[in-house]
Amino acid sequence: MMTLPVRDNTLDLIGNTPLVLLKGPSEAAGCEIWGKCEFANPGGSVKDRAALWIVRDAEARGELKPGGTVVEGTAGNTGIGLALVCNALGYRTIIVMPDNQSKEKMDTLRALGAELVLVPPTKFADCNHFVHTSRRLAEETDGAVWANQFDNTANRKAHIEGTAEEIWQQMEGRIDGFTCAVGTGGTFAGIGLGLKSHSEDTTIALTDPFGAALYSYYAEGELKSEGSSVAEGIGQGRITGNLEGAPVDTQFRVSDSEGLEWVARLLREEGLCLGLSSGINVAGAVKLGKQLGPDARVATILCDTGFRYLSTLYNADWLRSKDLPVFDWLDRA
Is Amino-acid biosynthesis found in the keyword set (predicted)? Predict the structure, then answer.
């Protein structure tokens, strides 16, 4: 008789997500491509892990006290994770987000009881960038701590101690490569460091969207961006605190159109409704698999649910407005 898992509290629902063999990507790569189902976390994304570790770290250091507030700047998913974690632990949340992110993320944050502050999207060097705005709000709010997900290494510790160990165990130590895109760098660097601690032979590959600068940094030693992407939550123009010391063996660059092709195929052929960052990750995993050869076993991250992008990726008018291909079934709707 199968024993089903039982959890002592709701925060224990974060992590220990399933790993699934992806048929289409495996066939395209000529080897095994596995997806870590991070959309199965309570908040619907991989960012639940960072949220929990960041809050627990702030508590352990005595910075976050009962009745306190957590403030963060985010593209949305980390804010959602923080709101859930803070609700469970009795804290308030103030979330600062660029106003060009999906409506679903904004509505979700409000529904969870977070105080949502929207700001215009701007470059990191601008003092009004969402990250800098969140830092100032934390400084101005009594009893508040700033989560600082980009440079707070409690973020990547979540993946060193959690996600990487899960992947290693789920794949029984037989993993030849791992790849994903970078937002804060916590997931990529944490899993990379964690897997390398088990085997230096595991190839760690960066998969960068266009518009980000890390591909050129690791390929040529210069932070230089090219093109643009509509993907939310990924794409980085600097070496964050979480990225420092990350193992990078090779790197790929993936277009939105290529990522969307995998989003469409995974939904149509395998019943997985995912966001664009997951499609870009899978495209990178296919490239890495082809590079490693037919016996390779490659893992990547399925970052979040596509239900968070119904007004964008799954909306024909929005896709056309961005000059992106429209899924054929949306054209029929």
Answer: yes
Catalytic (active-site) positions: 47
Each domain of the chain, given as residue ranges in start order, spans 10-40+163-319, 46-151
Query: pLDDT tens digits for 288-297?
Result: 999 999 999 9
- Whose CA is closest to 50, among 24, 14, 21, 23? 14
Q: Do domains 10-40+163-319 and 46-151 have the same CATH topology?
A: yes
Distance CA 275, CA 332 (A): 21
List the CATH code of the domain at 46-151: 3.40.50.1100
pTM of the model: 0.96
Whether the Cβ atoms of residue 93 and residue 82 lie closer than 8 Å to each other: yes
Which value, to the nearest 10 degrees, does the dihedral of the CA atoms of residues 37, 162, 102, 208 take? -90
The CATH number assigned to the domain with range 10-40+163-319 reads 3.40.50.1100
State the pLDDT confidence band at 140, using cuts at 50, 70 and 90: very high
Q: What is the pLDDT of residue 1?
A: 67
Percentage of the residues of the chain whose pLDDT score is greater than 90: 94
